[in-house]
Amino acid sequence: MKEIILIKNGELALKGLNRNSFEDKLIKNMKIRLADLGKFTFTKSQSTIMIDSEDEDIDLDDAADRLSKVFGIAALSRACVCEKDFDCIKTAAVSYLEEQLEDARTFKVEAKRSDKKFPMKSPEICREAGGYILSKFHHLKVDVHNPDIIVTIEVREQYAFIHGNRIKGAGGMPTGTSGRAAVLISGGIDSPVAAYMMAKRGIELCAVHFASPPYTSELAEMKVMELLKRVAKYSGTITTYVVPFTKIQEQIRNLCPEEYFTIIMRRIMMIVSEKIAQGQNCSALITGESVGQVASQTIYALACTDCVVNMPVFRPCIGMDKEEIISISRKIDTFETSIQPYEDCCTVFTPRHPKTRPHLDDVVRAQSKIEDLDQLIDEAVKNAKKVIIK
Ligand code: ATP
Ligand code: MG
Questions:
Q1: How confident is the model at residue 384 (pLDDT cuts 50, 70, 90)?
Q2: Which of 56, 86, 179, 217 has CA 20 to 30 A from 24's CA?
Q3: For residue 378, how many other CB atoms are within 10 A of its CB?
Q4: Band of pLDDT at residue 13, cut at 50, 70 and 90
Q5: Ligand 1 site, residue 48, Cβ cutoff 6 A
């Protein structure tokens, strides 16, 4: 039995004139995501995109799993394709959905008839197919309000499609339809979640990670790459820069008052990231900060980090509790990697008593102790290592 995948767009339907270009972008993103699985054809029809493969042995489980992580898709279904003949349709429904109908207690049939020349109208298709299914599965009952399985029969121009329950899509907007932004990625729980949340709004991601060897290990860097790989299953390719940060951190430690170590480090991270972001055609920065989580994330400290850059800084976790952030990190499968205990550069040289209400003047004065800072920043940007994460 021939099987295809049907894609229902998410917010795309709302976008009026932009809709076509959004759909084209979505199709492009899906093509990239399926490229190494085999050859697929994509056909747009009303608010559905049909994905078909001529190759018999294609792994549709894998394809559906990958597509469930592509932003811009509200729902997807695997469907069987059959002749537009009611006898074929009803027998195909029973054999294609046999396992799911066995497992269900209740069901209903929904019919959509876009081919108005088909001799049966939708209510009649539902009634007849429902009756046939009941005659084959004696344990089943009809429940039109809250059925375990909805059997959908779509009679289209060339063929009929039959599918069971839809798989929930990743939602959001197709990656790349909202511009580009650079995420400051640590090995923690929050920044991968922040990256995922902004990518969900259609933003294409770059990433910047600061590494301070030998204070931070190679394993810490590998952990960050692993996190990005997991985010990339949703966002698509992430061009990543690993910035050598040791010299700058040592200078902060040697020259600045201890209570300002973290805030100055955070400011310099923002400056370096903005420079890299500009070179990558990005229009914004993203961090995983959340108000009050640590001393550098009070609103006073955030004000001192914000003002060093001109780009807007998006902090999608800003109003979330740790528990809420963790629940998203579990959903996107980054949590287990995030909790591996490797030191981040943020946790080396941490002050014993960080200022939670820093005054900008004091911070600027403390930072000015590093006389050759501009040069160190340029060096860090120049020596950043580029890695493409797919
Ligand atoms: P996370 O779980 O994301 O590490 P956190 O609560 O541990 O967050 P901090 O360590 O203070 O917070 O970092 C705040 C934000 O600064 C991070 O969310 C991230 O965006 C950025 N950041 C921290 N460390 C690094 C790093 N080594 N490289 C790049 N960005 C970083
Ligand atoms: Mg961190």
A1: very high
A2: 56
A3: 13
A4: low
A5: no
248 to 3, 158, 265, 349, 371: CA distances (angstroms):
57, 65, 8, 12, 11
pLDDT tens per residue, range 72-123: 999 999 999 999 999 999 999 999 999 999 999 999 999 999 889 999 999 9
Whether the upstream peptide bond of residue 316 has omega within 30° of 0, thus cis, is: no
Does 210 contact ligand 1 (Cβ within 6 A)?
A: yes
DSSP code of 362?
Answer: H
Q: Dihedral of CA 202/69/55/79: which sign?
A: negative
- 298-316 burial, b at 16+ Cβ within 10 Å, e below that, comes to beebbebbbebbebebbbb
* Placement of tokens 């949703």 in the chain: 234
Q: What is the pLDDT of residues 204-251, one digit of tens each?
A: 999 999 999 999 999 999 999 999 999 999 999 999 999 999 999 999
**Atom 21 in ligand 1: residue holding the nearest Cα:** 184
What is the percent of the chain where pLDDT is above 70?
98
CA-proximal residue: ligand 1, atom 7 (nearest): 188
In the chain, the percentage of residues whose pLDDT exceeds 90 is 86
SS3 24: helix
Whether pTM > 0.85 for this model: the answer is yes
> Is 13 strand, coil or helix?
helix
For residue 21, what pLDDT is reported?
Answer: 85
Distance from C-alpha of 373 to C-alpha of 386, rounded to nearest angstrom: 23
Q: Which atom of ligand 1 is nearest to the CA of 288?
A: 18
For ligand 1, is residue 96 a contact (CB within 6 Å)? no
CA distance 19 to 35: 24
8 A C-beta contact, residue 241 and residue 385 = yes
Q: Is the CB of 262 under 6 A from ligand 1?
A: no
The DSSP annotation for 57-119 comes to: T--HHHHHHHHTTSTTEEEEEEEEEE-S-HHHHHHHHHHHTHHHHHH-SEEEEEEEE--TTSS
Distance CA 30, CA 47 (A): 16
